[in-house]
Amino acid sequence: MTLQRISAAMLAALLASGPALAEHHKSFGYGAANGPEKWGQLNDKYALCEKGDMQSPIDLAGANAIGSLELSVSYQSGPLTVSNKGLTVQADFAPGSTMTSGGSTFNLIQIHFHTPSEHAISGKRYPLTGHFVHATEDGRLGVLGVMFEQGAANAELGKILAATPAAKSEATTVPGRMIDPNGMLPADRSVYRYMGSLTTPPCSEGVNWHVLKEPITASAEQIAAFEKLMGDSARPVRAINNRLVVAPE
Ligand SMILES: [Zn+2]
């Protein structure tokens, strides 16, 4: 049999269509080629990132209502389980910690981080945010956002950072170490509240967003450590459109 000689251009075209490279092109990030403005084009499943009109984050100064909201949390200490996901650092939680809002009970699943904060207030972003991701038994998502400003170190963040590998990792439970989500909450539980989306692809909507008005502190070293692990990992704010955004009184 004779082998067909192929040109360099044909070879390049073949390689470009290979699965490994195609996968690479589809993975989202925060750079020029795969950043937030491109997410909707990276994958059919990410269409909402571009076409959705209830997207997150937003600038909370755009709130169009004021109200006191019933938000309560009942969080328990649990085993410290962390992973370096490349674009974020995540701590996973066993069942037993809940947030109650608007008559619904949401179970805490994981807390992950972004640098800088994704939500803004009058254009101002905090250097770090934690997203406490919850779901109801019937699968509705509820997120509680906590802003960190520079100040005293936070002990729970310290535990997460100490356990997070520098390179991407699977979730690993640290023997004998516990983490208490209550240690990453401010005393004042006043929240901004609106309906939004996941802030990363697939940008699914129907997420019950709560962002605490009062920030807590993390040390300059802790903020720098998160920045080093994750890099810039904040999606630009999206339009509020025809949404109710309730600010705390
Ligand atoms: Zn997040």
Question: Can you tell me about this structure?
Answer:
- With 249 residues, the protein is α+β, with helices and mostly antiparallel strands.
- It has a single domain, classed as Roll (Carbonic Anhydrase II).
- It has 6 helices and 13 strands.
- The strands form 2 sheets. Strands 2, 3, 4, 5, 6, 7, 8, 9, 10, 11 and 12 form an 11-stranded mixed sheet that branches. It has a two-stranded parallel ribbon with strand order 1-13.
- 34% of the residues are buried.
- Residues 14-24 have low confidence and may be disordered.
- The structure holds zinc ion (ZN).
- The site of zinc ion has 4 residues, from strand 6.
Attribute tags:
single chain; 249 residues; alpha+beta; Carbonic Anhydrase II; eleven-stranded mixed β-sheet; two-stranded parallel ribbon; 13 strands; globular; binds zinc ion
Compact description:
18% of the residues lie in helices and 31% in strands.
Report how far apart the termini are.
Answer: 81 Å
> What are the secondary-structure elements, in order, as H or E?
HHHHEEEEEEEEHEEEEHE
> Taking all residues together, what is the mean pLDDT?
91
Poorly predicted runs are 14-24
Write the CATH homologous superfamily: Alpha carbonic anhydrase
Architecture (CATH level 2) name: Roll
Give the domain tally. 1
| Biggest beta sheet summary | 11 strands, mixed
The CATH class name reads Alpha Beta
Q: Which word captures the global form?
A: globular
Number of helical segments with 4 or more residues:
6
Helix content: 10-25%
Q: Might you state the CATH topology name?
A: Carbonic Anhydrase II
Strand percent estimate: 25-35%
What structural category do the secondary elements indicate? alpha+beta
Query: How many beta-strand elements?
Result: 13
Bound molecules: zinc ion
How large is the radius of gyration? 20 Å
